[in-house]
Input
Amino acid sequence: MKGKIIKGIAGFYYVHTVESGVYVCKAKGIFRNRRIKPLVGDTVEIEILHEKDREGSITEIYPRRNELIRPAVANIDQALLIFAVTEPEPNFNLLDRMLVTMRFLHISAVICFNKSDLLAQEKLDEIADIYRGCGAPVLFTSARQKKGTDALLKLLDGRISAVAGPSGAGKSSLVNLLQQEVFMETGDISKKIGRGRHTTRCSVLLPVSEDTYIMDTPGFGSLHLTQLTADRLWRCYDEFLPYEPYCRFKGCSHISEPDCGVRQAAEAGSIHRQRYETYVSLYQELKEMKTYEGRKL
Output
């Protein structure tokens, strides 16, 4: 029987099957011998051991489309990055790090600013303007007032979406609301896998419909990309791409070179200043990281 791993803890994997619901499974020893660890999001084949007790064994792990290290999850179609517009104030540096991570891994992103009922439309427009050219759709929601969820559900449909964002942004409230509006039976699944209602301590894949899942994760806020170098960072900023050909020098860092098309676009407002400043900060961080690793060698 085919299914998806929706939670893994202490060597037990909870596999959701469309036909029969959730089974608690152990992985066969062959995976340990091959040094393959099942991950939340994996599509697997299971053998039913005890139907009454809902127990099974994972016999096959299908090839992964992608894999994240932190959190350790697989087969993500897109990342749903949830931040509050206020209470707490949005951490744009953190959001940009997440966007860079997704862009580098070739995973689509959706930016969701929650608690939109707490700010005037003028302020919401200012936030939206920062990310107008970032390559990711920007939505505003209010979990408290149940606003903006229809548009969000359309972007989630037919995909596995990993939820990430800082504490206090209302991630769990919004995820619970999305489940409630689309697939009421997931409440039983949440009880089966022991998911807390208000906190997320491990990655959990929540079925929304037959082919739609929301992956609630503990969050991934740091830039842990050992393969990303400072000279490749600009490629993770979609706003930079139209202006890079106008740089005088090939391999321009877009930091201090004369006649830099990207820097000129930022000064003219074609690239939002907030986004450019975060780029400069991350560029310096990656340069220092490379220097530090060189000293260790």
Residues 2 and 45 are 5 Å apart (CA to CA). Residues 182-189, 194-200 have pLDDT under 50 and may be disordered.
